[in-house]
Every structure is written in structure tokens, then in C-alpha cells.
Design brief:
This protein has about 100 residues and is an alpha/beta fold. It contains 2 helices and 7 strands, in the order βαββββαββ. About 20% of the residues are buried.
Length: about 100
């Protein structure tokens, strides 16, 4: 699994996590699929744990199988994290 943090994301996550881990979970619905990033005190059973230096990341099974090569970035304008994935495709809303 090759998941990396941009320098800005590493700096902000190290501070924001306060001893917790970042959890990435695959989500899907009528609007398409994506990933939810959240803080977690403990991994959920079956999560894959990746140590990225000062940040630990828990990935659910689906995320772990699909995020090889992804980069977690920090967007200062949005004050939030973005997941850049080389294999991402555009989702289409149904209805």
C-alpha cells in the first residue's frame, strides 16, 4: 500500500489528531462513490493500519484495496483535507 501525506497535510494532521488516528472509509450511494475521512480513537475490526510517521491511518477493506498511490493533501483555502487518487473517475448523480 502506497499512501502518502503532503507536507502540509502531515503538519496539520499531526496537530489535529491529538493522539487519534485518521480513518478512511469507502462510501457509495446514488451520487457515486467516494471516501470519508474522519478521526478515530481505535480502528474498526478489519481495518488496515498504516503508519505514516507522525500520523497513523486506518483504512477499511474497500479503501485499502483502492487507494494505492493516493496522496492526502491539505487545502488551506477550505481548511480541510483532500484525497488525490490517480485512479479516481468522475461520478454521475442518478435521478
Amino acid at each position: 500500500m502506497n499512501l502518502t501525506l503532503s507536507p502540509d497535510a502531515a503538519t496539520h494532521l499531526s496537530s489535529d489528531l491529538s493522539g487519534r488516528m485518521l480513518r478512511i472509509a469507502f462510501t457509495t450511494g446514488c451520487g457515486g462513490s467516494g471516501y470519508r475521512l474522519s478521526y478515530a480513537d481505535e480502528p474498526i475490526e478489519g481495518d488496515q493500519i498504516i503508519d505514516l510517521g507522525t500520523v497513523r491511518v486506518a483504512l477499511d477493506d474497500m479503501s485499502a484495496s483502492r487507494l494505492d498511490g493516493a496522496v492526502i493533501n491539505y487545502d488551506e483555502d477550505e481548511d480541510g483535507y483532500l484525497l488525490d487518487h490517480p485512479d479516481a473517475v468522475t461520478a454521475v448523480w442518478c435521478g
